[in-house]
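Input chain follows. Return structure tokens only.
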Amino acid sequence: MYSSENMPGWKKRVAIFMTGQTVSMFGSFLVQYAIMWHLTLTTKSGLVLALAAVFGFLPQAIVSIFAGVWADRVNRRAMIIVSDSVIALATLGLALLMLSGVSDLWLICLVMTVRSIGAGVQMPAVSALLPQIVPTDKLMSVNGINSSIQSALGLLAPVAAAAVYANMSIVPIFFIDVVTAVIGIGMLTLIAVPTLDRAASADKPSYFADLKDGISYIFTHDLVRWVMGIFAIVFLLTVAPSNLSPLMIARNFGTEVWKLTVLEVSFSIGMALGGALIAVFAKKVNRISMIIGTSMFFGVLAVALGFTTNLILYYVLFFIIGVAVPSFYTSAMTLLQETVEPERQGRVFGFVGIVISVAMPLGMAILGPLADVFRVESLLVVTGGAMVVVAAAAILLPSGRKAIAAAHASTGQALGSADPTLQTPTGQPND
């Protein structure tokens, strides 16, 4: 068990790590918004925006599975540093080329691809590194704080990006991103993250043997398979309330930009609050109960959105969804961090990256065209009802009961229990 007592100095290490990641993430958010705005304003092409989405998400999904294996075979800190450095160099190169007058679309798409690959490499490494520096009994709190930080950046970054882009151009935003990446890398070098014994061993299996083992582990481990399944279905079905709500507002309440802005702001504020609540009440949160409860809650709220005819009430419901998101995501991620042995966490979180990268675009590819045939309200009601059914099945079916039993054996938490005593399967420290 990783208790705070046998990990002295963990607060300082976590503070340095999260500060560096926050600074680096801020720069990444700026670039994300600026590139989409730049392509929108300079091309006014739906095809270009579709291509940008492909270059921005597809490489991340493809590389995540391979990156998960790497995260279990090398030092995770070094893996993050290398990927961050490559992203920064690619962004710096694009900035210098644009300063010299070269701004071809293919160059921007190339850099978006590099950045997407870098994100795919980083995600499993960061998720698997956290349990190495955070005591097990503090993981939920730290993940909740991290969720609040990301939500706050989601509020701040668009404003900052708009200010810089409107008064200068996209190039200064690229330079800001390079500076924030350097700061993030510099702070990460201050933290000692030992390479796992397995990764340092000269007798470890081949790369493809590790890949096969990771896939087999995910599909045969009752609890991990259960969490992955719920993750995929919830992300797939939440496309309706998350991505189609702006369309519903435009069709039913008016096309004023401020109405869409309030929608996004209410969601981001809700997420920030939800992350803070998780951080404060982490010891009282049961992982399984929270995953199932929020899944059902998402479904009920989606149905409520479908029947809402009052704009203010719509904003309130969307705010509540934002509050609930960290409860679902943080509980699921923490449960995986507590359950999966350190030597396999990179591969497991590689698959989580694939689910996140693929599920929502796939859901949008299905529901987007349907929104041109059916009313958005109907899609919200149908997907919300489906989510409630899926959540109920997740605990009533034999596979669900086996997963809950596995969670109880792994973390010491039964459904409805609030036992904060957590144990890893091996009972051994990560370092």
